[in-house]
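Practice problem: predict the structure.
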Amino acid sequence: MPGVLYSSKKELSETIRRTYVLFEGEFEDIHNSDKDKRIEGVDKTPAQMIAYQLGWMNLVMDWERNEQLGHEFHMPAPGYKWNQLGPLNELFYEKYSGYTLEQLLSLFRETEQKWQNWIDSLSEEELFVQGIRQWTGTKPGWAMVKWIQINSVAPFKSFRTRIRKWKKGQLGGMDVRSGDI
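Answer:
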């Protein structure tokens, strides 16, 4: 039953955890005062990277929750179409804009744990067989595992690269003589 991306639920869960820990660890030396700072060549601020993850992980779990409760589910979100992801992402940034970096990281830890608990509750069949859930659609190759992958492992990896680039750009903008470092 396992798919092309992962050989088992266990491998999926371990990969999510490993990539999450690496990504989250990159924030240890970022100060709250810098969370909204833009760096040339990086399209998101540190706060936006976490807000994006919080938004999308919770959205995917909402699709699942709504289907399980027999409620209507809207994809990607009520009032948004798939060609409107930019404005949807902006909604996430706005929703979490008042949080400190520490609060964002705490929410991110909680959300990753909920994500893992949700995956633990699923069977291999639910994860790897296309069409078990209506919200996964009918397009071949888009079993639930793919949705989980593109909303956790893939962005954890790409955002880790971006946050490292952001930190390098941030360091490049500091003046050693003024005591910024």
